[in-house]
Design a protein that fits this description.
This protein has eight helices and seven strands; from the N terminus they run ββββααβααααβαβα. By secondary structure, it is an alpha/beta fold. It has a seven-stranded mixed beta sheet with strand order 1-2-3-5-4-6-7, with helices on both faces.
Amino acid sequence: MTVRYVESSKLPTPWGTFDMHGFEDAEANKEHLVLSMGDIGPDEPVLARIHSECLTGDALFSLRCDCGAQLQAAMNNIANEGRGVIFYLRQEGRGIGLLNKIKAYHLQDMGADTVEANEALGFGADMRDYSILKPMLEHMNIRQIRLMTNNPRKVQALKELGIDVVERVAHESGRNPHNLRYLQTKKGKLGHLLDEQGEDDQT
């Protein structure tokens, strides 16, 4: 594993000041972040979110997904608790990259759902690799997690890395008329754990 810690700094946000920890993956030529707040240590389960980069949702306020709303909800939840961590992974578009994501969006404009669009471009439905979390978790000295997610694959990935997921915290936010089919596809085809009226977790 080529992911290495680089440096940390303060990051003031509307929800409070986080510590921002930078990691570099030299092999993949990508940079990842961990945002932490409060005392993060191995002795007590920490509220956590694994969030894959979504430029369109996180920064451009897209309503095609629920990613931006979920990121903000996670920051708010951590601030309310006073302790927690967000792993921000540069795996845009479920791992296919930004330009391929735009191609997938075009296919969705033509009628495909998110899974069909990825597969039409020659990709799997979800190409993300969560093994890159291992050196980040080790650096942060995290062994027990209360994971904010609706995606069972994230829970399983952490368990395979030796992390004790003591609780899955449902994390539904950002439902709107533009992403209803997207959410239905994630529940029906990707196995995300949503209630009938709920939303879901993209990244």
